[in-house]
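Protocol step 6 of 9: fold each sequence in the batch and record its structure tokens directly after the sequence line. For illustration, a two-sequence batch is reproduced in full.

Sequence one:
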Amino acid sequence: MNAKVKVSVLMLTYNHEKYIVDAIESVMKQQTDFPFELVIGEDRSTDSTADICREYQKKYPEIIKLTTNEENLGLQENFIRSYNRCSGEYMAICEGDDFWINKHKLQIQADFLDSHKEYSACFHRALNYYQEDGSKSIGNGGYQKKVNTVFDIINCNPITNVTVMFRLGLFGELPSWFSKVTSYDFAIHVLNAEHGDAYFMNNVMAVYRQHKESIWSMASSEKQMLISVINRQLLIDHYKEKNKAICDKLTETYTNGCIRLVQYYQSIGNEEKVAETELFILKANPSFTVEQVKEMEKIRKAPLKKIISQRIFRLVKVIRREISKLIPLPKIK
């Protein structure tokens, strides 16, 4: 590839033989007026994923950079190794079990970042596809803000990886602690958003596939809460001396996550974990008293009006989910 790469597309894959063709094809069918590269991190799959990737690399040697790890590195190390091979001005992500459905996606997002230097990233809506039962939903509904600050992302990360494009190198090299994060997406989006807001595009341009083999789907409720808490703790340490406002917001959401963990441990009668998590809360918030923490842990009954509203919402969601099974899954053309 002679011309300078504009966009690096990062694709992490492990045991995705059933999905990887859709992922790669959706990248290779992108129509752009600039060069892009596809950087694949193949993490020593035990199925035919690596062979499929090699075939595509032979077909597109000028575009595809393939790394086949000699041993399974795990998600974080595979991300770090692949991220460091990217050379573009911007980065987009399409993991090996997801795919794009708009052949102009890269062009649309790169054009936006070119003309809006104040933003660090842009992202769009995705079609959530639940592989096991064939149901579908669309993420980032009407409530989604157009302009998302770092505080918005810390409060509730709205960015699905398969939808994002961001500027590479805003914060320099990946921090030394990055290998300790348990899910790279939240950390990378916070680090980027420190340098500029993230803009939301109300277009559905990708499919986010959820299936029983995916890392997030396989995680228990407890593990998902722990992932959130651990990632925030690492970021708190990162920003402690660097940015008080960001550190304070991270501490607030870390504390809320710990409270939810305490409530979970109380529900299963694990008093040892309750006490341990309470100590984490007190350590993160030196001004808190034990009594204050105990008060925060109380589960307050929602008003009747809110309970009725929630039940109606859940019923509508079930109906919509059943109807969605009849709608064909879109593919890139």
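Sequence two, same batch, same settings:
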Amino acid sequence: MTELQGLVPAEGKLGILLPGMGAVATTLIAGVLAVRKGEAQPIGSLTQMGKIRTATGNPKIKDYVPLADLRDIEFGGWDVYEDNVYEAALKAEVLGYKTLQGVRAELEALKPMKAAFDPHYVKNLDGTHIKTYTTKLDLAEQVITDIKAFKAERGCSRLVMVWCGSTEIYHQLSDTHRTLASFEEGLRTNAANIAPSMIYAYAALKEGVPFVNGAPNLTVDVPALLELAARTGTPIAGKDFKTGQTLMKTIVAPGLSARSLGVKGWFSTNILGNRDGLVLDDPDNFKTKEVSKLSVLDSVFHPEENPELYGDMYHKVRINYYPPAGDNKESWD
């Protein structure tokens, strides 16, 4: 394999810390464990199944880029409910019973740490497996303690944190978020506009742990946390996983744009009955998701540059919480 300049080998264990251990996180964990035991294929994994074009051929990404082997991954995380990962995966009903039984012992051994939680940001959840604190700085320091303990106990050489928690209520950049100094003052004074996801991100960046945002929350899209990331030399990434309805938009819309086909209107609706749907049934949480979804088509069509084709496009987004659907989400565009 050709050596890649500036990339060090992925030696030792990689710890993946997941704030929010519901359907997304438990499916990830169970899937990796099943693949590791030879009971499944890593379908949908870009690094494991995807290929990269090189001057000498098209190897799989995992065989070319120095990534951690699946056997060297350790999982941990936090959740507002105390169910172990097996119990949470059963309730999510994403993976089949047979698949879960094959990794049951490993899943039952994984229990979430108490979560940093603020019901103001997710009104429809009533979890009790949560940390108590005096200030939000105290809460951040508790998360930092969790990070250090996990790394030591699991013998990890490096960590990454991936937000798999709920979509928080919509809020915008404020003075609290403009500098690291003002943000830390906000932590000390319990500023209402510092959301739980920001506390996890702050704790991760303080420890030099890369942070990936799997929800459309504001989180690291603020100058204060960008400043901290730059100061500690820590990568940040993500703005929602975009694996459902938004994924379909980003597949269909470029095709229309490539053929210069105009669009007058685009109606999108999701029907889902899981915890995600329950959270998004609150208008304030839905707005965060709506803003993210509405922006996708503009980034593809560029209506300001193509007013004849897309200047008057009407885009409507709906999310419908329907409990009988469970995690069998339907998306219509």
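Proceed to step 7 once all outputs are recorded. Observation for sequence two: Residues 245-332 form a domain with the Dihydrodipicolinate Reductase; domain 2 fold (CATH 3.30.360.10).
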